[in-house]
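User: I've been trying to design a sequence by hand for this structure and keep getting stuck. Would you show me what you'd pick, starting by listing the structure so we're on the same page?

Assistant: Good idea, let's start from the same input. This is the structure you sent:
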């Protein structure tokens, strides 16, 4: 029968409509401006939250909800986003600033039943939500120089221990070559036999001069490129780990070019806090665990619900750790963390551990960072500044099983613990220095203005299209408008599900999609009119209109889809935002313009002896 979908197709269309409505719904619950309060040890009590809310009430700042979430972080929701900074300063004054961290945030409002279904709103980009933008340049050459400096120190120790005489200095020249001079060829040959196996990645060369025999080691270009790549990747890992502390939704931290790192933190209005976190420095320290009756000075640290006393003396500084990777022990199939030290650290570790086998060694993570501190000025104004702080905590306590050297492993950990420990060690410090070359801030008021303008543009465009379709196609225009409405819902649902970030150019892509979506229905209705003018029946005209217009609609949308995919693959920033919504919009437009509108047409005209059709024709449509 013409213009009748089988049951399965009707159910599929109905399912997609309900599915889209459910997963688009979280976007109609915008987040509230809030301040976030966390404690250094992760425990925040109700008394501290009461002090914070009392300080806000006393100053006349209106808040409507305050709660401690399951992760121990408190959120105080505010009525006015413009009062966030003032609220942060007041809470900073009300609570001990050495123990509490107060940051600006946006509190979600998604209902629990939607969250239980996995529903969440689209994350907004930096241009819509406001936040901070940094472009950092990584000094990858410094990472190479540090590695070569470490190698020079190691070579000195090896030659000294084997009593191979060379002419000082054993040094690194400005071309990153390690030069070693000898008085005779025999000493040089002994050095080659000793150093080549120890440093297989270095290329060596010899040169005979009048009064000396020269041995030169250089790092090949492939090794330099690999080391520079490692420095970029470790810095990215470090920054992502640090940004997690801010609780930022959809942060963007990615490599830009060979040496750049782009950092965008949407929703963060506290730029000082963001810069403090990015510039923090963390290191590791290795200590012996104090034994009973020891007279050595000790320090106590909490660890896994108890207290551990460690000797004040540091075995190895964290600056000596060059790399850390988690792996599986091939013999025991248990997880382990492989640690690599530089030459100085390797010697210190070996000297200490070979006389302390069977004792425990503790790994201490020390973080030097800054904290935002608010003070009241003599004139009564509040000023927030940054002050340095040091946070120390034990991350591992293990038994020394044998004398350790340059490379050793930490065992006795679960799989997730090993991964976390390796990540913690790697993300503790930057592998290479970074320098800001670009910094900008998008304020929350500008972001809200962009959101309002973007929403208004979609509404105006939608209204104009609705009016156009009603004027030209009457009842069929209503069907096209209903399909267009579900198209917008499907775009919102898909973007929410895949976590695509909505940007201002993305809104432009949605507006473009609205025009393209209704264009498909215009083609279909034009084809139906042509068929009616030929004198065919209404049922046959509807069937032919959809079938014959399908190829044209598919071709036009496919070409646009290809262009949008190319834009996404080669574009950056705003171009990607535009391409994402365009690609999603084209896919949803094909579904709504063809399947949903056809289902509605079938419901109204399918399986009936229809004599007229409201499609905006002035001539008689009876047959």
């Amino acid at each position: 029968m013409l213009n009748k979908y089988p049951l399965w197709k009707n159910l599929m269309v109905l399912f997609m409509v309900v599915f889209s409505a459910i997963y688009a719904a979280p976007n109609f619950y915008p987040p509230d401006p809030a301040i976030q309060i966390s404690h250094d040890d992760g425990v925040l009590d109700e008394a501290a939250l009461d002090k914070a809310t009392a300080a806000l009430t006393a100053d006349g700042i209106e808040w409507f909800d305050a709660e401690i979430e399951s992760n121990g972080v408190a959120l105080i929701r505010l009525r006015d986003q413009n009062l966030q900074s003032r609220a942060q300063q007041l809470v900073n004054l009300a609570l001990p600033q050495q123990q509490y961290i107060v940051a600006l945030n946006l509190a979600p409002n998604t209902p629990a039943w939607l969250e239980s279904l996995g529903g969440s709103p689209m994350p907004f980009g930096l241009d819509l939500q406001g936040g901070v933008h940094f472009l950092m340049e990584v000094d990858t050459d410094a990472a190479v120089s540090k590695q070569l400096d470490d190698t020079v120190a190691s070579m000195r120790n090896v030659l000294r221990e084997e009593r191979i005489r060379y002419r000082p200095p054993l040094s690194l020249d400005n071309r990153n070559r390690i030069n070693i001079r000898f008085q005779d060829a025999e000493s040089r040959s002994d050095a080659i036999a000793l150093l080549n196996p120890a440093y297989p990645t270095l290329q060596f060369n010899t040169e005979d001069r009048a009064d000396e025999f020269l041995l030169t080691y250089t790092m090949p270009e492939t090794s330099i490129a690999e080391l520079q790549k490692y420095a970029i990747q470790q810095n990215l890992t470090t920054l992502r780990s640090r940004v997690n502390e801010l609780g930022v939704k959809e942060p963007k931290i990615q490599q830009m070019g060979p040496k750049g790192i782009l950092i965008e933190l949407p929703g963060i209005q506290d730029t000082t806090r963001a810069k403090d976190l990015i510039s923090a420095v963390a290191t590791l320290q290795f200590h012996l665990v104090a034994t009973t009756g020891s007279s050595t000075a000790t320090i106590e640290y909490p660890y896994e619900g108890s207290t551990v006393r460690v000797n004040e003396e540091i075995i190895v500084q964290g600056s000596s750790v060059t790399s850390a990777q988690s792996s599986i022990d091939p013999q025991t199939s248990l997880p382990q963390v492989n640690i690599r030290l530089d030459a100085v650290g390797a010697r210190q570790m070996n000297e200490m551990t070979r006389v302390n086998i069977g004792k425990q060694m503790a790994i201490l993570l020390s973080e030097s960072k800054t904290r935002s501190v608010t003070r009241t000025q003599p004139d009564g104004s509040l000023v927030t500044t940054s002050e340095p702080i040091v946070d120390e905590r034990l991350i591992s306590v293990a038994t020394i099983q044998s004398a350790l050297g340059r490379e050793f492993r930490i065992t006795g950990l679960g799989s997730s613990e090993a991964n976390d420990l390796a990540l913690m060690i790697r993300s503790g410090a930057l592998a290479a220095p970074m320098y800001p070359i670009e910094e900008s801030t998008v304020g929350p008021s500008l972001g809200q203005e962009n959101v309002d303008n973007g929403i208004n543009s979609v509404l105006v465009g939608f209204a104009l299209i609705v009016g156009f379709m009603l004027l030209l196609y009457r009842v069929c225009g209503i069907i096209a408008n209903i399909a267009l409405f579900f198209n917008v819902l499907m775009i919102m649902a898909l973007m929410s599900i895949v976590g695509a970030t909505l940007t201002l150019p993305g809104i432009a892509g949605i507006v473009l999609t609205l025009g393209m979506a209704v264009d498909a229905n215009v083609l279909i209705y034009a084809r139906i009119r042509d068929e009616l003018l030929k004198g065919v029946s209404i049922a046959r005209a509807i069937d032919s209109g959809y079938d014959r217009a399908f190829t044209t609609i598919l071709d036009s949308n496919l070409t646009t889809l290809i262009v949008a995919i190319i834009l996404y693959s080669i574009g950056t920033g705003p171009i990607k935002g535009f391409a994402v919504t365009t690609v999603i919009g084209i896919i949803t437009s094909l579904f709504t313009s063809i399947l949903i509108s056809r289902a509605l047409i079938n419901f109204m005209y399918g399986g009936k002896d229809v004599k007229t059709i409201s499609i905006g024709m002035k001539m008689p449509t009876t047959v």
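That's my pick for every position. To get oriented when you compare it with your attempt: The two ends are 19 Å apart (CA to CA). The CA atoms of residues 21 and 611 lie 35 Å apart.
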